Amino acid sequence: MKIAKKYENINWKQCELELFKLQSEILKAFRNGNIKDVLKAQHALTRSFAARALAVRKVTTNKGKNTYGIDKVVLKTNEEKFKAIYSVKDLSSYKAQPVRRVYIPKANGKLRPLGIPFAIDPMAEETACKRIYGFRLHRGLHDNAIYLKLVLGSYTSTRRICFESRY
């Protein structure tokens, strides 16, 4: 993958494709039960330009882009965003922590919880119940409502509750 020299020149489609490939490697290693390869693939993902660029883009273009995070920094210019992509490249002094809740003040004075999850989406999606819709990529309340309408509205369907586990 060709790495851009400016934030404006980043090929986002190529970054998404590269991230998908890296996540697929993690999932493939996980399905094979090879923990060593899972860790190697996760290491490659966290150090890839594509993952770092997409992470910076995600937090700088979302609804809360002007809200300070736990680092008390807001990235507004393209130069700041590009520097941020490279500042997270050196992870030698970084030590991962479990998901933690930090409460950020909102404009109206209330506190908003901010959860900082691990980067293990492929494994989480693989082991999660197929009927769980909360906090999952490409799933939401609307998907759950459609599923319930289909199951509860059908005369022939059985009322299924998902207790499956793949551990």
Q: What are the SSEs and their pairings?
A:
Layout: H1 12-32, H2 35-47, H3 49-61, H4 78-87, E1 100-105, E2 111-116, H5 121-127, H6 141-152
Antiparallel strand pairs: 1-2
> Which secondary-structure class do the elements indicate?
mainly alpha
Distance between the termini: 35 Å
Query: What's the total number of strands?
Result: 2
Please tell me how large the radius of gyration is.
Answer: 19 Å
Proportion of residues in helical segments: 40-55%
Percentage of residues in DSSP E strands: 5-15%
Task: Name the assembly state.
Answer: single chain
How confident overall, as mean pLDDT? 78
Tally of separate domains: 2
- Spans of at least 5 consecutive residues whose pLDDT stays below 50 are 163-167
Strands side by side in the biggest sheet:
1-2
Number of helices: 6
Q: Categorize the overall geometry.
A: globular
Sequence of secondary-structure elements: HHHHEEHH
Largest sheet properties:
2 strands, antiparallel
Q: Would you summarize the structure shown here?
A:
The protein has helices at about 10-30, 35-45, 50-60, 80-85, 120-125, 140-150; strands spanning about 100-105, 110-115. It is mainly alpha-helical and about 170 residues long. It folds into 2 domains: about 5-95 and about 100-115, no CATH class; about 130-165, no CATH class.
Describe this protein with a few key phrases:
167 residues, mainly alpha, 6 helices, 2 strands, 7% strand, globular
